[in-house]
Design a protein that fits this description.
2 domains, nucleotide binding, eight-stranded mixed β-sheet, NAD(P)-bd_dom_sf, six-stranded parallel β-sheet, Dihydrodipicolinate Reductase, domain 2, Gfo/Idh/MocA-like_OxRdtase_N, alpha/beta, Rossmann fold
């Protein structure tokens, strides 16, 4: 069983820890927070044995096999690099880095220290994402796809009220494309690989991050349109259109609600049962890579390609983060 440490004590950390324990491959060994009492409050229900308010001390703890990082986006790269250099395997919440160059540096550091770096992007590991993958050849050739994730953020009203929530703060490498837009980009790259070209537009808020936007990824024979928003809701599913029919996905992040409509036939529900905690599957995948002792090259390439696309989207839309000035090595 792998002994896991956690950096970050928010809801997503709790969800991942519960998923990791559910796999029976992990136990929670340690928790880091700037406030050690918050670390204790988070870790005590899971019988964690150590609590830290020092990353140096966390990295020096030889009982820890792997570290899950769920801090604000701008902290992902420096914290991951610190843990990798300390000889810890790392599973880092998406987006793993603020930009492409940082993502490259992270994987280089993992390789130099013979440890695994894994990006926590749950979608590709769910059974219903595999259903989506398997269904696409049945509607081939593919001609068009629209992948949408638009969800009004509960923090947007705070932003409108003059507050400065992390969600809309460039200091934390946030915004729509870096948050829920990641699911759109990541799903497209997982399904179709690196695009031939990227065209992006966005509504940039006065804070400097995007509130919503659209991206067109060009592939041989078809385009993929991505719609993302944290300032509005979408009521329509993602759709993959082929000459033989269409596949609909109600929620691209989890694969919920997969349906197929072949030309001239009735709608067919393809959805399979899944674990309620969708992070279960990424935790399983991480454990598999730990047992192998290295990251799957396709997983690594997907993470790098997504980081490359996200960086290009921000370049085109004029979204710049303070983290873009950081050089890690």
């Amino acid at each position: 069983m792998f002994k896991l440490a956690v950096i970050g004590t928010n809801w997503i950390s709790q969800q991942f820890v519960e998923a990791a324990i559910q796999t029976k491959e992990f136990c929670l060994q340690a928790v880091y927070s700037r406030d050690v009492e918050k670390a204790r409050e988070f870790g005590s229900p899971y019988n964690a044995e150590a609590y830290y308010d020092s990353l140096e001390a966390l990295g020096a703890d030889e009982s820890i096999d792997a570290v899950y990082i769920a801090s604000p986006n701008s902290f992902h790269a420096p914290q991951a690099m610190q843990m990798l250099k300390a000889g810890k395997h790392v599973i880092c919440e998406k987006p793993m880095a603020s930009n492409y160059s940082l993502a490259q540096a992270m994987f280089k550091t993992a390789e130099e220290n013979n440890v695994v770096l894994f990006e926590a992007f749950m979608s590709p590991y769910t059974p219903n994402f595999q259903v989506l993958k398997d269904s696409l050849p049945t509607i081939a050739p593919l001609r068009h796809a629209t992948i949408s994730y638009c969800q009004y953020s509960s923090r947007y009203q705070k932003y409108l009220n003059g507050e400065n929530p992390n969600t809309f703060n460039p200091e934390f490498s946030n915004g729509s494309i870096m948050d829920i837009g990641y699911y759109c980009v990541g799903s497209a790259v997982e399904l179709f690989g690196e695009p031939n070209s990227v065209q992006a537009s966005a509504h940039v808020l006065p804070s400097g991050v995007d509130g919503c936007g659209s991206v067109t990824l060009a592939y041989d024979g078809f385009n993929v349109n991505l719609l993302h928003s944290k300032v509005s809701d979408s009521l329509i599913p993602s759709e993959f259109q082929g000459e033989q029919g269409s596949v609909l996905v109600d929620m691209i992040a989890t694969g919920r609600g997969v349906e197929r409509i072949l030309r001239g036939e009735d709608k067919e529900v393809l959805t399979l049962p899944q674990e309620e905690n969708h992070m279960f599957y990424e935790a399983q995948a991480f454990a598999k890579q730990l047992k192998l002792g290295s990251i799957d090259p396709q997983m690594k390439q997907r993470s790098l390609t997504v980081a490359k696309v996200l960086t290009e989207v921000r370049r085109q839309t004029g979204v710049v983060f303070p983290a873009d000035k950081i050089a890690l090595g």
